[in-house]
Protein backbone atom coordinates (compact mmCIF):
# COMPACT_ATOMS: atom_id res chain seq x y z
CA UNK A 1 0.00 0.00 0.00
CA UNK A 2 1.40 3.36 -1.02
CA UNK A 3 1.75 5.86 1.78
CA UNK A 4 0.21 9.30 1.19
CA UNK A 5 2.68 12.05 0.51
CA UNK A 6 2.55 14.59 3.30
CA UNK A 7 2.72 18.28 2.45
CA UNK A 8 5.78 20.03 3.83
CA UNK A 9 5.19 22.12 6.92
CA UNK A 10 4.35 25.71 6.25
CA UNK A 11 7.22 27.91 7.38
CA UNK A 12 5.95 30.83 9.45
CA UNK A 13 8.02 33.90 10.33
CA UNK A 14 8.99 34.33 13.94
CA UNK A 15 7.26 37.21 15.78
CA UNK A 16 10.63 38.83 16.44
CA UNK A 17 11.39 38.88 12.70
CA UNK A 18 7.97 40.39 11.93
CA UNK A 19 8.54 43.11 14.53
CA UNK A 20 11.95 43.87 13.01
CA UNK A 21 10.31 44.09 9.57
CA UNK A 22 7.79 46.65 10.91
CA UNK A 23 10.62 48.80 12.35
CA UNK A 24 9.18 50.30 15.57
CA UNK A 25 11.97 52.92 15.65
CA UNK A 26 10.34 54.62 12.63
CA UNK A 27 6.93 55.00 14.26
CA UNK A 28 7.70 58.05 16.41
CA UNK A 29 7.34 60.88 13.81
CA UNK A 30 3.76 60.06 12.72
CA UNK A 31 2.72 59.27 16.29
CA UNK A 32 4.05 62.67 17.39
CA UNK A 33 2.20 64.34 14.52
CA UNK A 34 -1.05 62.70 15.64
CA UNK A 35 -0.45 64.21 19.07
CA UNK A 36 0.08 67.62 17.46
CA UNK A 37 -3.16 67.24 15.56
CA UNK A 38 -5.06 66.26 18.69
CA UNK A 39 -3.71 69.29 20.57
CA UNK A 40 -4.40 71.68 17.68
CA UNK A 41 -8.05 70.60 17.48
CA UNK A 42 -8.83 72.59 20.62
CA UNK A 43 -10.93 69.72 21.98
CA UNK A 44 -10.35 68.73 25.62
CA UNK A 45 -8.61 65.38 26.01
CA UNK A 46 -11.02 64.19 28.72
CA UNK A 47 -13.25 61.52 27.27
CA UNK A 48 -11.12 61.19 24.12
CA UNK A 49 -8.10 59.29 25.41
CA UNK A 50 -9.13 56.02 23.76
CA UNK A 51 -9.67 57.72 20.41
CA UNK A 52 -6.28 59.44 20.64
CA UNK A 53 -4.62 56.13 21.51
CA UNK A 54 -6.24 54.43 18.53
CA UNK A 55 -5.23 57.34 16.26
CA UNK A 56 -1.63 57.08 17.47
CA UNK A 57 -1.68 53.33 16.87
CA UNK A 58 -3.08 53.90 13.39
CA UNK A 59 -0.29 56.32 12.45
CA UNK A 60 2.59 54.34 13.96
CA UNK A 61 2.18 50.58 14.48
CA UNK A 62 -0.25 50.31 11.55
CA UNK A 63 0.26 52.72 8.62
CA UNK A 64 3.93 53.50 9.23
CA UNK A 65 4.72 49.86 10.01
CA UNK A 66 2.88 48.84 6.86
CA UNK A 67 4.98 51.23 4.79
CA UNK A 68 8.14 49.64 6.18
CA UNK A 69 6.94 46.16 5.23
CA UNK A 70 6.02 47.33 1.72
CA UNK A 71 9.40 48.98 1.28
CA UNK A 72 11.36 45.95 2.46
CA UNK A 73 9.39 43.60 0.21
CA UNK A 74 10.04 45.61 -2.95
CA UNK A 75 13.65 46.27 -1.94
CA UNK A 76 14.39 42.62 -1.11
CA UNK A 77 16.71 42.07 -4.08
CA UNK A 78 18.69 45.22 -3.33
CA UNK A 79 18.84 44.36 0.37
CA UNK A 80 20.12 40.89 -0.50
CA UNK A 81 23.25 42.66 -1.76
CA UNK A 82 23.55 45.64 0.59
CA UNK A 83 21.89 44.44 3.81
CA UNK A 84 21.55 40.64 3.67
CA UNK A 85 20.78 40.38 7.39
CA UNK A 86 17.40 42.09 7.04
CA UNK A 87 14.40 39.82 7.78
CA UNK A 88 13.38 39.13 4.16
CA UNK A 89 16.73 38.53 2.41
CA UNK A 90 18.04 36.57 5.40
CA UNK A 91 15.10 34.16 5.14
CA UNK A 92 13.75 34.94 8.61
CA UNK A 93 10.64 36.19 6.77
CA UNK A 94 10.34 33.22 4.37
CA UNK A 95 8.68 32.92 1.00
CA UNK A 96 6.13 35.59 0.20
CA UNK A 97 5.31 36.35 3.82
CA UNK A 98 6.77 39.84 3.48
CA UNK A 99 4.13 40.63 0.85
CA UNK A 100 1.36 38.97 2.86
CA UNK A 101 2.26 41.04 5.91
CA UNK A 102 2.30 44.25 3.85
CA UNK A 103 -1.12 43.50 2.36
CA UNK A 104 -2.60 42.38 5.68
CA UNK A 105 -1.29 45.43 7.54
CA UNK A 106 -2.75 47.67 4.82
CA UNK A 107 -6.19 46.08 5.19
CA UNK A 108 -6.02 46.31 9.00
CA UNK A 109 -4.98 49.96 8.81
CA UNK A 110 -7.93 50.84 6.59
CA UNK A 111 -10.38 48.99 8.86
CA UNK A 112 -9.16 50.94 11.89
CA UNK A 113 -9.21 54.21 9.94
CA UNK A 114 -12.80 53.57 8.83
CA UNK A 115 -13.83 53.11 12.46
CA UNK A 116 -12.50 56.59 13.31
CA UNK A 117 -14.63 58.51 10.83
CA UNK A 118 -14.74 59.45 7.15
CA UNK A 119 -11.89 61.97 7.10
CA UNK A 120 -9.59 59.64 9.02
CA UNK A 121 -10.51 56.87 6.60
CA UNK A 122 -9.69 58.92 3.53
CA UNK A 123 -6.45 60.10 5.14
CA UNK A 124 -5.65 56.42 5.71
CA UNK A 125 -6.46 55.55 2.10
CA UNK A 126 -4.26 58.37 0.80
CA UNK A 127 -1.42 57.49 3.15
CA UNK A 128 -1.58 53.80 2.24
CA UNK A 129 -1.62 54.62 -1.47
CA UNK A 130 1.44 56.84 -1.07
CA UNK A 131 3.23 54.10 0.90
CA UNK A 132 2.72 51.60 -1.92
CA UNK A 133 3.51 54.16 -4.63
CA UNK A 134 6.74 55.05 -2.81
CA UNK A 135 8.13 51.51 -3.00
CA UNK A 136 6.20 49.52 -5.58
CA UNK A 137 6.58 49.62 -9.35
CA UNK A 138 5.60 51.10 -11.69
CA UNK A 139 5.64 54.43 -9.80
CA UNK A 140 8.33 53.63 -7.19
CA UNK A 141 8.52 57.25 -6.07
CA UNK A 142 11.63 56.58 -3.99
CA UNK A 143 13.68 56.56 -7.19
CA UNK A 144 13.27 60.35 -7.32
CA UNK A 145 14.35 62.33 -4.27
CA UNK A 146 11.81 65.10 -4.84
CA UNK A 147 8.76 62.87 -5.20
CA UNK A 148 9.78 60.18 -2.75
CA UNK A 149 10.64 62.53 0.09
CA UNK A 150 7.45 64.50 -0.52
CA UNK A 151 5.41 61.30 -0.18
CA UNK A 152 7.14 60.50 3.12
CA UNK A 153 6.67 64.02 4.46
CA UNK A 154 2.96 64.00 3.66
CA UNK A 155 2.43 60.58 5.26
CA UNK A 156 4.59 61.06 8.35
CA UNK A 157 3.52 64.59 9.25
CA UNK A 158 0.57 66.01 7.31
CA UNK A 159 -1.82 63.08 7.16
CA UNK A 160 -0.93 62.03 10.70
CA UNK A 161 -1.63 65.59 11.93
CA UNK A 162 -5.01 65.61 10.16
CA UNK A 163 -5.77 62.21 11.69
CA UNK A 164 -5.06 63.49 15.19
CA UNK A 165 -7.33 66.50 14.73
CA UNK A 166 -10.11 64.48 13.12
CA UNK A 167 -10.28 61.77 15.79
CA UNK A 168 -10.91 64.47 18.40
CA UNK A 169 -13.93 65.77 16.52
CA UNK A 170 -15.75 62.60 15.58
CA UNK A 171 -14.20 62.38 12.14
CA UNK A 172 -15.03 65.93 11.06
CA UNK A 173 -12.82 67.91 8.67
CA UNK A 174 -10.31 69.95 10.69
CA UNK A 175 -10.47 73.74 10.63
CA UNK A 176 -8.50 75.39 7.81
CA UNK A 177 -5.70 76.71 10.01
CA UNK A 178 -5.01 73.15 11.19
CA UNK A 179 -4.81 71.96 7.60
CA UNK A 180 -2.49 74.84 6.73
CA UNK A 181 -0.01 74.09 9.51
CA UNK A 182 -0.12 70.37 8.70
CA UNK A 183 0.72 71.22 5.10
CA UNK A 184 3.68 73.45 5.93
CA UNK A 185 5.19 70.99 8.39
CA UNK A 186 4.76 68.25 5.77
CA UNK A 187 6.78 70.40 3.38
CA UNK A 188 9.47 70.91 6.00
CA UNK A 189 9.63 67.18 6.63
CA UNK A 190 10.84 66.76 3.04
CA UNK A 191 14.18 68.15 4.25
CA UNK A 192 14.24 65.69 7.14
CA UNK A 193 13.82 62.82 4.70
CA UNK A 194 16.76 64.12 2.66
CA UNK A 195 19.01 63.84 5.72
CA UNK A 196 18.48 60.07 5.63
CA UNK A 197 19.80 59.89 2.07
CA UNK A 198 23.36 60.96 2.85
CA UNK A 199 24.24 57.56 4.29
CA UNK A 200 23.41 55.70 1.06
CA UNK A 201 24.80 57.88 -1.72
CA UNK A 202 27.02 55.26 -3.34
CA UNK A 203 24.39 52.55 -3.14
CA UNK A 204 21.70 54.86 -4.53
CA UNK A 205 23.96 55.89 -7.39
CA UNK A 206 24.67 52.26 -8.32
CA UNK A 207 20.99 51.32 -8.13
CA UNK A 208 19.81 54.30 -10.18
CA UNK A 209 17.98 55.98 -7.30
CA UNK A 210 18.11 59.74 -7.82
CA UNK A 211 18.08 60.89 -4.23
CA UNK A 212 18.85 64.57 -3.77
CA UNK A 213 22.48 63.90 -2.74
CA UNK A 214 22.87 61.96 -6.00
CA UNK A 215 21.07 64.43 -8.28
CA UNK A 216 22.16 67.71 -6.63
CA UNK A 217 25.49 66.66 -5.20
CA UNK A 218 26.35 66.49 -1.52
CA UNK A 219 26.57 70.23 -0.88
CA UNK A 220 23.57 71.09 -3.06
CA UNK A 221 21.39 68.52 -1.32
CA UNK A 222 22.52 69.67 2.13
CA UNK A 223 21.64 73.28 1.33
CA UNK A 224 18.31 72.21 -0.17
CA UNK A 225 17.46 70.18 2.94
CA UNK A 226 18.19 73.14 5.23
CA UNK A 227 16.16 75.61 3.17
CA UNK A 228 13.27 73.17 2.79
CA UNK A 229 13.15 72.76 6.56
CA UNK A 230 13.60 76.46 7.37
CA UNK A 231 11.24 78.20 4.94
CA UNK A 232 8.00 76.44 6.04
CA UNK A 233 8.84 77.18 9.66
CA UNK A 234 9.36 80.86 8.82
CA UNK A 235 5.94 80.91 7.14
CA UNK A 236 4.42 79.26 10.22
CA UNK A 237 5.95 82.01 12.38
CA UNK A 238 4.37 84.67 10.18
CA UNK A 239 1.01 82.90 10.36
CA UNK A 240 1.14 82.62 14.15
CA UNK A 241 1.85 86.34 14.45
CA UNK A 242 -1.02 87.12 12.06
CA UNK A 243 -3.38 84.88 14.05
CA UNK A 244 -2.51 86.58 17.33
CA UNK A 245 -0.07 84.10 18.90
CA UNK A 246 3.16 86.15 19.15
CA UNK A 247 4.63 84.24 22.11
CA UNK A 248 4.26 80.93 20.35
CA UNK A 249 5.80 82.51 17.25
CA UNK A 250 8.74 83.70 19.37
CA UNK A 251 9.24 80.17 20.69
CA UNK A 252 9.34 78.76 17.15
CA UNK A 253 11.87 81.47 16.20
CA UNK A 254 14.08 80.44 19.14
CA UNK A 255 13.93 76.83 17.97
CA UNK A 256 14.83 77.96 14.45
CA UNK A 257 17.86 79.89 15.72
CA UNK A 258 19.12 76.74 17.44
CA UNK A 259 18.48 74.79 14.22
CA UNK A 260 20.41 77.40 12.21
CA UNK A 261 23.49 76.86 14.39
CA UNK A 262 23.26 73.12 13.85
CA UNK A 263 22.66 73.61 10.11
CA UNK A 264 25.85 75.61 9.82
CA UNK A 265 27.75 72.77 11.49
CA UNK A 266 26.02 70.22 9.23
CA UNK A 267 26.77 72.13 6.01
CA UNK A 268 30.51 72.09 6.73
CA UNK A 269 30.56 68.28 6.33
CA UNK A 270 27.15 66.91 5.30
CA UNK A 271 27.95 63.22 4.91
CA UNK A 272 29.70 62.92 8.25
CA UNK A 273 27.26 65.14 10.16
CA UNK A 274 23.83 64.25 8.70
CA UNK A 275 23.19 61.73 11.46
CA UNK A 276 24.23 64.24 14.11
CA UNK A 277 21.88 66.85 12.70
CA UNK A 278 19.06 64.28 12.59
CA UNK A 279 19.65 63.53 16.25
CA UNK A 280 19.72 67.13 17.49
CA UNK A 281 18.15 69.35 14.81
CA UNK A 282 15.07 67.29 13.99
CA UNK A 283 13.85 67.25 17.63
CA UNK A 284 13.91 71.06 17.52
CA UNK A 285 11.80 70.97 14.34
CA UNK A 286 9.18 68.64 15.81
CA UNK A 287 9.12 70.64 19.06
CA UNK A 288 8.11 73.63 16.94
CA UNK A 289 5.27 71.51 15.58
CA UNK A 290 3.88 71.00 19.07
CA UNK A 291 4.36 74.67 19.98
CA UNK A 292 2.35 75.60 16.87
CA UNK A 293 -0.32 73.07 17.80
CA UNK A 294 -0.68 74.66 21.25
CA UNK A 295 -0.94 78.05 19.57
CA UNK A 296 -3.99 76.90 17.65
CA UNK A 297 -5.44 75.35 20.78
CA UNK A 298 -5.06 78.67 22.54
CA UNK A 299 -6.80 80.43 19.68
CA UNK A 300 -9.77 78.12 20.06
CA UNK A 301 -9.53 76.47 16.64
CA UNK A 302 -12.92 75.20 15.59
CA UNK A 303 -13.80 72.44 13.16
CA UNK A 304 -16.06 72.36 10.18
CA UNK A 305 -18.38 69.40 10.54
CA UNK A 306 -19.20 67.72 7.26
Strand content: under 5%
CATH 2nd-level architecture: Orthogonal Bundle
Distance between the termini: 71 Å
Range of helix content: over 70%
Largest sheet: none
Mean pLDDT across every amino acid position: 91
Instruction: Domain count, please report it.
Output: 1
Low-confidence stretches: 4-8, 301-306
* Structural class designation: mainly alpha
Q: Give the CATH level 1 class.
A: Mainly Alpha
Question: How does this structure look, described?
Answer:
The protein has a single domain (15-299), classed as Farnesyl Diphosphate Synthase (Orthogonal Bundle). It is 73% helix and 0% strand. Helix 2 (28-40) packs parallel to helix 13 (270-299). Mean pLDDT is 91; it is low at 4-8 and 301-306. 49% of the residues are buried. The chain is an all-alpha fold and 306 residues long.
Layout of helices and strands:
Blueprint: H1 15-22, H2 28-40, H3 49-74, H4 76-82, H5 97-115, H6 118-135, H7 145-167, H8 176-195, H9 201-207, H10 212-215, H11 218-242, H12 246-267, H13 270-299
Helix pairs in contact: 2-3, 2-7, 2-13, 3-5, 3-6, 3-7, 5-6, 6-7, 7-8, 8-11, 8-13, 11-12, 11-13, 12-13
Which short descriptors sum up this protein?
306 residues, mainly alpha, Farnesyl Diphosphate Synthase, 13 helices, 73% helix, disordered C terminus
Quick overview:
Helices cover 73% and strands 0% of the residues. The chain is an all-alpha fold.
